Amino acid sequence: MGHEYVELKNTHAAIESYRRAVDVNRRDYRAWYGLGQTYEMLEMHTYSLWYYKKAAGLRPWDGKMWMAVGSCLQKMGRERDGIKALKRALLADAYYDVGSSFGSGGDLLGARGATGQMDPEILLQIATMYDQLGEEEEAKAYMELCMAQEDGGPAAAGNLGESVRIHNDSPGGSDGYHDRDDANAEGNAEGTGVTAATSKARMWLAKFAMRTADYTTANRLAAELCQDGVEVEEAKALAREVRSRLEASGMLGPAG
């Protein structure tokens, strides 16, 4: 019933319904997650975060739980903690075998080899938070990884080494980690194709290339953006600016 009350935006009734559910079963992750959602609707992010962490502790292999934790932390202005949670979402969705729990050690994303592609939306969110923190090199790495999801293959699996380390500071309760359905652990090498997230990453990388005077890369990315069908007008304006810079630098002859 709680989910129906959320749909109706009856937050008081939703909270009561979810609380009754957790009173009956303290391990009902859906009820804890529902409480997190409801308090997030009320913009009570401290409460929301606590409930999301409870849900994530009960279901640590579910990337959706960690996405909720990460997004909530971002709204609270805790970007660095949000990044850690979203990296866990990536690891959870890729179904890594990291021992008895997600907090068991320092296994690396690149060291294990991914079993499937990553969610470009999560990668974009991580990159955006790094950008907000002023860490452009990390932001660039995740933007590139986001864009790589279009094609799938080895590049999409990522090899960011230390930057995707599993952290030990997330909530516990991961004793059920190995109860997951291992049938979903088989990799999927197919890419996502162009998405809104990958186009945003490409736009960021094109602008970054412009700022760093890498006009050849900026020109290539701008041309790709014009074909993406997402934010085409901005892409065309960027392409014109790139061409102007190339002409000014003598790397491209003037248009006939």
UniProtKB/TrEMBL annotation:
GO terms for cellular component: anaphase-promoting complex. InterPro entries: TPR-like_helical_dom_sf, TPR_rpt. Keywords: TPR repeat. GO terms for biological process: anaphase-promoting complex-dependent catabolic process; cell division; positive regulation of mitotic metaphase/anaphase transition; protein ubiquitination. Residues 157-196 are annotated as: Disordered. PANTHER family: CELL DIVISION CYCLE 16,23,27, CELL DIVISION CYCLE PROTEIN 23 HOMOLOG. This is Uncharacterized protein.
